[in-house]
Amino acid sequence: MVTVIVTERLSMRFPRVTALDRLSLDIGPGVTGLVGSNGAGKSTLIKILLGLTPATEGRASVLGLDVATRGGEIRERVGYMPEHDCLPPDVSATEFVVHMARMSGLPPTAARERTADTLRHVGLYEERYRPIGGYSTGMKQRVKLAQALVHDPRLVFLDEPTNGLDPVGRDEMLGLIRRIHTDFGISVLVTSHLLGELERTCDHVVVIDGGSLLRSSSTSEFTRTTTTLAVEVTDSDEHPDGTAALRERLTAAGAVFQRATEEGLPGAGHILLVEAAGEETYDLVRDTVAELGLGLVRMEQRRHHIAEVFRPEAAEHGAEQPTEGQPR
Ligand SMILES: Nc1ncnc2c1ncn2[C@@H]1O[C@H](COP(=O)(O)OP(=O)(O)OP(=O)(O)O)[C@@H](O)[C@H]1O
C-alpha cells in the first residue's frame, strides 16, 4: 500500500509536557480520523508533519518527503485547516481565498477560478463577497476548508473542522470532508475529540492518548456487525403499543433483549434490541409480528459504534449514556 504519512518513534517534549511519546504510525490514502481527547497531541503532530515544528526525537515523512528537511515541498502539496479562528474579519471569503491561492503560487486568473470553484464546493455562494467578520461559525469553517483546498493539494490536514458546529452543520461538514476524497481523490487526515462522528466519514481511525498510539484500524473493523437485531414495529388498533406487545410475546417465546442503547434519542422507545441466536430468531420475530398484526418497520443486524470499542462495558450492558461523543 502507498503510504501517505509515516512516523517512527516520534516524540515532542515540552519542558513540562510530553505532547508526543514515541508515536509510530503508517497511514495510507483515503480519509483517516485522528482521534484523541483535548491535549492528546493532535495539533502538535500536524505541526510536525507540516514541517513547522521540529520533533524532539524520531522521524516522520509525508508523501515520501522527510519533515525535517523538506517542509517547504510538503506545504506545497498539503493543505492545512487550523483549529482556531484565524480569519481576517474585514475581507470577504473571495478576497481571502484568492490571496491564499496567490500565496501558494497560482497566477492571478487561475487563483480566481480555483477560488470560485472551491468556494462553490464548500457551499459558500452569495455570501462569498461579504466580510468574513459577519459570518456564522459554520461559514467560517467553510472558508478555512476552502483555503486548505484552493491550491489543489494531494493531502489535507483538517484540525477539528466540526468544532463549534451544531448537529446539522457538523453533518454537512462531515459530508464535505468525505467528498474531498471521493470527488477529488485528495487524502484527508481529520482530527476530532469525538470518536463517534468519524465512523461514517473515515476509512481508517487512529486513536492517540497522551501522545501515544492507542489503536489504529479500519473503520469497518471498529464497526463490525453484532449479533443484535434492531426491530421496530408500528402500533395497531388492537395493540396501541405495538412495541410493548411484541416484547411481551417474544419474551414468552424465550427471546433475550438488550437494553436499548439509543435511549434518549428520537424514536428510541420503539426500537427493540433482540439477541439473535441464529436464523430462528429472525423467523420468530417475523412470525410474531405477523401474528400480532403489526407492521414491521425494520429488522436489521446492529453494528458496533466506534465509541463502544473503547467502552466495552457500555456495549455489553447497553448502559451507555448519550453524550456529545455518541453517534446519532
Ligand atoms: N508550544 C507549546 N509549549 C508547551 N506545551 C505545549 C505546546 N504546544 C502544545 N503543548 C502541550 O502539549 C500537549 C498536546 O497539545 P496539542 O495541542 O497537540 O493537543 P491536541 O490533541 O491538539 O488538543 P486540542 O484539541 O485541545 O488542541 C498539551 O498538553 C499542550 O498543553
From TrEMBL:
**What's the superkingdom here?**
Bacteria
Keyword tRNA-binding carried by entry? no
Q: Which residues form the ABC transporter domain?
A: 5-235
Record's signal peptide = none
* Pfam families with a match to the protein in the record: ABC_tran
Q: Which UniProt keywords apply?
A: ATP-binding, Nucleotide-binding, Transport
| One of the record's GO molecular function terms | ATP hydrolysis activity
Q: Per its UniProt record, what InterPro entries does this chain match?
A: AAA+_ATPase (IPR003593), ABC_transporter-like_ATP-bd (IPR003439), P-loop_NTPase (IPR027417)
Q: Does the keyword rRNA-binding apply?
A: no
Which protein family is named in the record?
A: Belongs to the ABC transporter superfamily.
* Official protein name in the record: Putative ABC transporter ATP-binding protein
The lineage is: Bacteria, Bacillati, Actinomycetota, Actinomycetes, Kitasatosporales
